[in-house]
Fold these 2 entries.
Entry 1:
Amino acid sequence: MKKLLASTALLLALTLPALAEEYTPDPNAKQGGVMLMTYKDDVATLDPAIGYDWQNWSMIRSLFDGLMDYVPGTTDLRLGLAESFEISDDGLSYVFKLRPGVKFHNGREMTAEDVKYSLDRVTLPATQSPGSGFFSMIKGYDAMVGGTATSLEGVTVVDPLTVKIELSRPDATFLHVMAINFSSVVPKEAVEAAAGDFGKMPVGTGAFKMTEWTLGQRLVFARNPDYWRAGEPYLDGVTFEFGQEPVVSLLRLQNGEIDIPGDGIPPAKFTEVMDDPAQKAMVVQGDVLHTGYITMNVTAAPFDKVEVRRAVNMAINKTRIVQVINNRAAPATQPLPPAMPGYTADYAGYPYDVEGAKKLLAEAGFPDGFETDLYVVNTDPNPRIAQAIQQDLAAIGITVNLQSLAAPNVIEAGGAGTAPMVWSGGLAWVADFPDPSNFFGPILGCAGAEPGGWNWAKYCNPDLDKAAVAADSMSDPAKLAERLKAWSDIYMKVMEDAPWAPVFNDQRFTMRGARMGGEGALYVDPIATVNFDYVYVK
Amino acid sequence: MPAYVLRRLLVSALILLGVSLITFFLLYVLPADPVRQIAGRSATTATVESIRRELGLDQPFLIQYGHYLAGLLQGDLGRSYLQKTEVATLIASRLPATLLLMVGAIFCELALGLSMGIAAALLRGRVADQALMMASFVTVSAPQFVVGLLMLYVFAVKLGWFPIGGYGTFLHLVLPALTLGILGSGWYSRMMRSSMIDVLRADYIRTARAKGLGRARVVLRHALPNAILPVIAMIGIDIGIFMGGIVVVESVFGWPGIGQLAWQAIQRVDIPIIMGVTLVSAIAIVLGNLLADLVAPFIDPRIRLK
């Protein structure tokens, strides 16, 4: 609930130029020390236009900055490289004033030209950015993607410290978009000097700069002495070691050799860790903007009947599934996770009711049930969860054949519409930014229902699409409550049509060594995963 | 001899061409769209299609393969889909670790295999001989990930003699090299045993014994150098077996070689890296075999290359 209130505060803040208060630093925080973190796999890239996985997301955040940022450990927006901004009355134009004297790691001062260059770069097809779609509200985006322009028409350099961004439609999520990694400001000369390898030679304005990367072995960040937020970061550096199995990392943490096992607690060791007081003391728990769900392809029998989809919702014993994963999650009632604004707190979801589900199936014309396929990613714990779903559905007469495959194959089957049911685990939706719209478009909207899209239920309700556009157009602060209500209504309508059976909302569990300081939320930061800029060595 | 080498090199080039075509085709028909992987879940259809065009993946198979081949002939293995770095750079940065592991593994398998083989030959027919040959069976058939995990558990976790995976010092090398080496040692011990038995039956050994030379001298000076030669020629062929093993062993031990690179690339459908590692492995195998054939006549003058 506290989280929910915090998020609501965010929305209030979002629409007003006066943002959340600055972060109150930990009074015990002190500078110095190098943190050691381990991972199994090497990092794919540190290019903010390219990097889009849970591992490099936090690293990129500490090497780069965008115009907007979040208060550490929360989902509250705050100013980043922008010192202030103004929104026009029609919500179509944003003018950002940049902080003077911000330097890139190469020593050059950052200007409005760099902001423009960075936004052009991320939307140019040649960059192949997975984040390009986030910028579709900026005027001139279609021409960029269509290849008829090489610069965004809507982004103008007013003077060296002022940039104006015009939108083609009012969009209440725009400031969030200016805070995601893809909006990071990069220096043109460094990108060009890297000759296609900027992801291995990153240069930003962030709290840390990269000083060494031995591929497959280690990556070293050192404090940026010129960082524009005075007194930050606290750590002198962060060293990442690769090639460490999660179980091995856990052993090393217990021996005091490392500070954070980057891959988290191995599922097989979870109970052991939580039962041992010494180990449990190192565990930090936090919210994730995540929902795990089952999709049902509404375009094909038998899931074209809403009764069948509702029956599935009622047949799933969510509490038991949460137990299967050692209570590392909470049962879900709706597509939005509880920490997200727009979440409908007074909605209890479909009840667990086997008899009721059987009755619905009979009404739909399947008194004896039917046989179907459930696609699932073949990495633990997903097959175990799928087996629990299989048993639950067997109880109402539905025979489920499990198709346990590698992630890309499940994505392909879901996108092509050949999968009647998909369990989203291992691919599940984690919000890119804390806004209710983020759970709709690609996974529940008509655009995502096209072949290859991520809307695996193939659910397309044009009325809801219209309602979504209307809700996102409400960038007027006076309409805040209305916008939130609109999104809540949209998700309630989704639950009525039941293209999904929401199952649980993940909780993040990580561990930190005894010498590490800083509040727990910094280690399970809803935005940055681990917030390197603010954690410290005691 | 030069004509033979030339012919073999030509055949090798054809083999590599075949390998590249088959691998490229298999990855092409894979039921997973790499563009979707790159574009991410938020991508619009327009973004997805623009990336597909950028990568040339909207072209028919033969044109895609033609482009790849044209690049290959200029030494260009392409760029990783997800890392954007040149595949050649990625492989080059990881090759030294794999080569080091191979050297370590060859040393382990020779040391273990040869000593087991010699001992078995000298103790032929006794219980010790049978025990050694039984042991060689076990090592040949034990799955590497099981052996690797067992080694880690016993020698690193329980006894603490070696680091728990990783890379950097001699101690890091021991367990992965031993894991790879144990597999090969079984083959070598059996070969060494039969080769040694053959040699020990030879007339010149009987002569040496008749001269009154000591047993150690007969074995070490006269029998071993002759018996070991055909075994040494096996090393070249061994490279192929290693290439299969490194993917597993490097992943278990967190060894930053090309096997680990391949494993990560497979999980991410990063086709240029999978192609690159496959080709480099194929080249290693082809060269290893060629080397084995070229060395053979020097070891045994009865063999002639035609």
Entry 2:
Amino acid sequence: MTIPAHRDLVLDVRGLRKTFHSRNGGPREALRGIGFSIERGSCLAVVGESGSGKTTAARIVAGLESATSGTVVVTDGRAGGKTRHGVQMVFQDPYGSLDPRQAVGAGLHELLKIHGMRRRADRRTRVSELLESVGLDDRHAGRYPASLSGGQRQRVAIARALALNPALLILDEAVSALDVSVQAQVLNLLADIRERTRISYLFVSHDLGVVRQVSDTCIVLRNGRLIESGPTADVLDAPRQGYTRALVDAVPRPGWRPRRRPA
Amino acid sequence: MTPAPLFRIQDLHVRLRHRGGERTLVREVSLSVRSGQSVGLVGESGSGKSVSIKAAMRLLPRGTRAEGRIAFDGGDVLTLGRRELARYRSREVALIHQDPRAHINPTRTVGAFLTEGVVHTGQMNRAEATERACALMADVGITDAARRLHQYPHQLSGGLLQRVMIVAALLPSPRLIFADEPTTALDVTVQSDVMAILLEQIRERQVSMLFVTHDLDLAAAVTDRLAVMYAGSIVETGPSAEISARPLHPYTAGLLQCRPSTAEVKRLTAIPGRPVAAHEAGTGCSFAPRCPFAVERCRAERPHDRSIEGRTVACHRVEEIADRLEERAS
């Protein structure tokens, strides 16, 4: 298969396999040879139920887990007037991913300093800029995670992930733990950031409404296999696989009735 | 005249002792469930929906105080003595929790868990209990019930375990089931399955249900009536289908609008700010700081329940804004 030269891919994953070995349960194949790619500036959603392998795939792309076999290629490039490098990740639980004993601003300063921004004045400007880009301001810089609401905490996690201008932002169930009224704010924020910066997203979620809202393309995983892929609108409006249809049909909406699965 | 409801909460306040003072968790909550009816209690985190259920089961933690009246079949739940309370909890009502794994003893078999309660309270002997548990397990779609009875909770999937919890709730033949987010921890396809089973069972047996959830779409689909909670108070009550088709309280309308749909993409109309807890709410309407329709009066004076179009809505401006809410929603 040849890829046309004009496709500017930020992520290209091929033949990804992952086998976990437990001490007594024997080998368990979490991913059984899946492939997908993301064009620069676009958002790919990875959809699936628990145990489908979606988080494992995201963690391998983030470099937090090693693959048993397969390749993951991330290509840096220019988008929105900036050169963007590597990947960053936002996790589901902002309680667990922020240091409870470090103020929000100090954390951002530290992060920028470690990555070579020596001048304090530069860092200060950048911290303000980052907080503003996620809808917070300098007043929040002195706050600790415990004094922030769940939505604000997730904004801080996003600001931290954006600090180093990553080429790809990996969001693993990043809005799942938020209340619906706050979830909508964060989804709008993610859409704005992408429009402004042309950053690319790999968005892992079990929530098809959220997926429809944020992504351009999506892949559906089941038991570590890729079941269906394509533009999100096509996959959700006219699923080709029975499994995808069952997923779409199970989402409560006006006029919906719960249904027993055929035994 | 309609008969008195099976279960009724009137003017319930729950307060928690906190640093020498008191914090309000639930304020002026009133709702009723008729025989055979399912009522949904919907709200975001901290809205007081679980606390209300706990109060109704008399399961509030130490340091909390419930005031008001909770009546089951005419009797006052808050003043029940030890024996009557035990009887109420073991035979009249049942509770299904969000996380089944946290509410089952991992060191005992499913069979021991299911039969323990009814045998202990003398409703059945062990053989009868086992037989009835097997029959119920078949009803809720658990195949191979006899084998499952000898298994331990860790050997069952989340969906299967939640069905075991439904069996446990139904076994003593209660008249009312409190379901506290029973499907929130499950995948959507499993949620659909478990919800369908639960509805089928309660309809067949004429059991009433108080269904607590954060998911307004889900609640609207599975209940007859809805009560929407915000900051410890109920802001809107009415028939489920009508509320989801034409919300009358700005908060209900906001909740419906900010939920992303699987069928279309449009910019979400988010509710600004964050949900507040009852103790953080000021003197006025607790939703006023986030409400696009709030005026001076809303910030100064707490709204009382108003009846409009067969619903109860706690909003000063409900008559004025009802039609505008609908415009915004479409």
